[in-house]
Amino acid sequence: MTEHPPEPPVRRGVFAGWWIVGASILTNTLTTAVFAQGFQAFIPFILDTFGWTRTQLSGAFSFRQVESGAVGPALGFLVDRVGPRKLIIAGGLIVGIGVMALSQVRALWHFYLVFIIISAGFSAANHSITWPVIISRWFRRHRGRAVGIATTGPIIGGAMALPSTLMIQAWGWRPVLFALGAITAVVVVILGLLIKERPEELGYGPDGDPLDAPPPSTSTERAAAPARDGDQGLSVRQVLRSREFWLFTLFLGAMNISSNGFNVHQILYFESLGMARTTAAATAVIVVVASGIGRIGAGALADYVDYRIVLLGMGVMMAGSQFYLLAVRADTILLALPFAVVMGTAFGGVISIRPVVASRLYGLRNLGAAIGLLNGATLAAGVAGPLMMGIAFDLRGSYDLAIWAAAALAATALVMLLFMRPLRKEV
């Protein structure tokens, strides 16, 4: 009796890869609501409770950057060897339980210790390394668009700053933080148990194509599937010897320093200009909502446009938004709006294009390690951002000097793009 190979599964409804994208969005919504953009809502209340200086508080965020930078390369290697799903589950547990513990701190050293522990889990569960690797395996032609959409979770998480502020005013910051931590732990673990790391587990190729699908034939498809794609790619040694790796790292590091200070101090900055706390929190919400334009837009553009042009646009916008604050006293929500929209768009774009460019430059074989190395260097550079702004305010009673430095750094980083080569395309 002749045996016939099994028929490939028939796709019905939405391609499963988009459900993976949805899981990334929900995971990052929760983790950023309690430990990144959305955590800004808790900062003024924590300062009111303990009387710490802004430099003291900023130190915790800088230590987080150091820890994330150190963990990033190791995490990238683990992604390639044990798989991202296990790391997402472990990271979700650490973030959730850690945030619950953070709600009970009574001293500065408690805050620092718990903050650093949460950082390790956050690095594993968020959109920096694990999720981009999974998304890159599920998509080829639409990879930039998919990664861009998958990184939009912080938009919702950051938008939680305003409702979190209102809840804190009603119930206090400790109960609110504890409850959000518990929700995060439960939901992220469930999502991690449900997801599939590769489309082949369901009998598909990337983008839902048959496993034996022919190579791309149209110019648009060829542009979206360079020769280093698939499970081929560079070795870690080749990645480190690449000129583009170091130039891209320097560019991303400068962008991270420039933006990271605002991730911690934005609400405090606008409060220092005379804004009410809830109004200042609203500016943070606008930034993260606007970042969706950058996350989705830059990711989609990277499928069709030279990545250097996209990076140029993001860098110009970031520097321009900060020079705007130096030129205009943005003490009302209307005056703060141009900064928030432009800064948010630039911030989001830099985040989403990073794994897309890495996957196209280096392939999928060691993508986790490549992204981990990129993140390690750039996150470590971000240590300077919060400290720079905290020290400037504590010494001078103003953030202006730190904003000058951040804007100049973002503008200077654009020089790196002049020396980066275009991506190699299939012929």
Plain-language structure description:
The protein is mostly helical and 427 residues long. It has a single domain (16-200, 223-418), classed as Growth Hormone, Chain: A (Up-down Bundle), CATH 1.20.1250. The chain contains 19 helices and no strands. It has helices at 16-35, 43-50, 54-82, 84-102, 108-125, 130-138, 143-150, 153-159, 161-171, 173-194, 219-223, 236-240, 243-272, 277-301, 307-327, 333-362, 367-381, 384-396, 400-413. Helix 3 (54-82) packs antiparallel against helix 4, helix 3 (54-82) packs antiparallel against helix 17 and helix 18 (384-396) packs antiparallel against helix 19 (400-413). Mean pLDDT is 84; it is low at 217-230.
Q: What is the CATH class?
A: Mainly Alpha
Q: Considering the protein shown, what is the CATH homologous superfamily?
A: MFS general substrate transporter like domains
Describe the largest sheet. Answer: none
C-alpha end-to-end distance: 44 Å
Count of distinct strands: 0
Total helices: the number is 19
Mean pLDDT reading: 84
Taken in chain order, the helices and strands follow as: HHHHHHHHHHHHHHHHHHH
Which term fits the overall shape? Answer: globular
Count of domain modules: 1
Percentage of residues in DSSP E strands: under 5%
